[in-house]
Amino acid sequence: VELLGKAYSEDDYSNVTEKILSKVGKNLHNKKHHPLWLIKEQVKDHFYKQYIGRRGTPLFSVYDGLSPVVTVQQNFDSLLIPQNHASRRKEDNYYLNRDHMLRAHTSAHQWDLIHSGLDAFLAVGDVYRRDTIDNTHYPVFHQMEGVRLFSCHELFSNIKNGEGLQLFEQGHRTAHKQECHTMEAVRLVEFNLKQVLTKLVTHIFGDGLQVRWVDCYFPFTHPSFEMEINFQGEWMEVLGCGVMEQQLVNS
What we know:
Blueprint: E1 2-3, E2 6-7, H1 18-21, H2 35-50, E3 61-63, E4 69-71, H3 72-75, E5 100-102, H4 110-115, E6 120-128, E7 140-148, H5 152-156, H6 183-205, E8 211-218, E9 221-231, E10 234-244, H7 246-250
Parallel strand pairs: 3-6
Antiparallel strand pairs: 1-2, 4-5, 6-7, 8-9, 9-10
């Protein structure tokens, strides 16, 4: 298979169709004035203005040109997704071969971006899943995600008597936290996460928005949440998020 200037040998895992291959490289999220570009710019602009680093520059850097062809290691293993997890199935993904695939989520780039030394970034791109087409599903769609890592100082600097607080402990995993995190750290990270995302959706959809948080599960975050907004009298899920598994950061 020839794709984006590279050749991939086919094997028993190869299942990308010509129709899907024709979509790769369109990069609608980077086409000026396209609706997806407009949403991306709106989110980017919000983060640039709201979150400023110590040098007066935007805290979050943006990556919107990363290749949609990733390794299975990037898409699954680097995110702690078990070998037998249902999300790896050939029926759900577009594989070029056993080792390469079209990314199923922008999270496929998290490990590489963190490993390069980044601690606050947004990743944007086209993602691919073998979905049946209906009014809310299409095999090519787009995601934008953010990652923020905190040092002890960044998390506790504005807290009264915060100098004695710690990020880590040797404890037990509960429904509310990982075994290595202190309850104080998790509460602050969770508060920050929900506040940042509530501000973002209010910026996109306008004031007077009804928002609710639902507990959920992702292999690479704990605790994990989905945000739902009230749209035309019904609750609609708009995003998933959570506290990144420390094992992923440590690796």
